[in-house]
Amino acid sequence: MYMDKFTHWNFELVDFMEDLVRVFDKTGLIVYTNSSMKKFLENEEGKFCVFSDDDIHRNDQIFSSLKCVAPIGHKEDVKTELLSVGERDFFVKSSPIFDDKNEYWGSIEVFRDITEENKIQKDLVKYQEMVKNDMITASDIQKSLLSKLSHTDGLNLEYKYISSAQLSGDFFDVIELPNNKTCVYIADVMGHGISASMITMFIKFSVRMLVHGRKIGHPREILRALSKEFSKLNLEMYFTIFLGIYNRETCEFEYSNAGHNSIPILFNKNKNVRLELSGLPISWLFQDSRYSVGKAKLCHGDCVLFYTDGLTETKNKNREEYGEERFFNVVDKYKNSLSDKELLDKLVEDVSEFRYGIQEDDIALLSMRIL
Which of 156, 266, 274, 350 is the most exposed, having the fewest neighbouring CB atoms within 10 Å of its CB? Predict the structure, then answer.
């Protein structure tokens, strides 16, 4: 800033600013404060700025209670600093003032009150930390429910579960039923995060309620009842689910599909078969859906491999998808030389090598081997 004499300067606009403004000359003497500054600190004019801790011990001058941001004679255009005064926080800008000979005259300091902004920011950080802790807890609960998967009589069960976020929208479950039957399903909820994970819990407890409480023992009827229960939530979300029931006495596996496009494969040493079956996802849009039923006769050594599209839709650097063909090729290549657990590990390893960048979707794999 340039000026002939300080007394020629016009402070009318500055006086009406909400920000606190003060001006000190080259000796550090405060020669002007605006109305806002006068309301915050009275009688500052005529005092000297505090530039160091040693200043306040001098008895020949009366010092301001507000520290000065820039030292006397600083030539930078603007110097900034954050200051706390009592319970208030300020963002301070200090600009040098030069006279008409371009010689340092003094400085003008503007104090902007950011107390509320800081409080909001601190509250936001605190809230984010709380949400993060809640999500970690929810994720631990979700994973613990999967880890309780047991090796049912007559079946060997293995799984891999990798979420793209802390909480996943993929889920599977194995439920023991009366009369030597086992219900097994895999589901994929639209989206990720808290809302998707809540739906996975809804699926888990609803299916168990339907098969144990209502004694519904047919895949098609389970999906129809599940669809009706979900429609009561009035959520604009949807999920896909492939659900089957294995009868250990007859060795029959009956299944229905509600929009799950990752078709499970049935394989043994000599064959690979897709358990192809169509159906609409479970959504408030499709409340009266009818589901088809498929049947497969399973034998000792047969394995049914369930998965979600997070695996097959993984993309490489050219945005090409991993795809079902690569998936089936890995299964076919290693199914006779690796255990079920090792095969799932190999699939995850192969898709991880194929992936470029971060994992964009959840991945779930579940194998059910007939012993």
Answer: 274
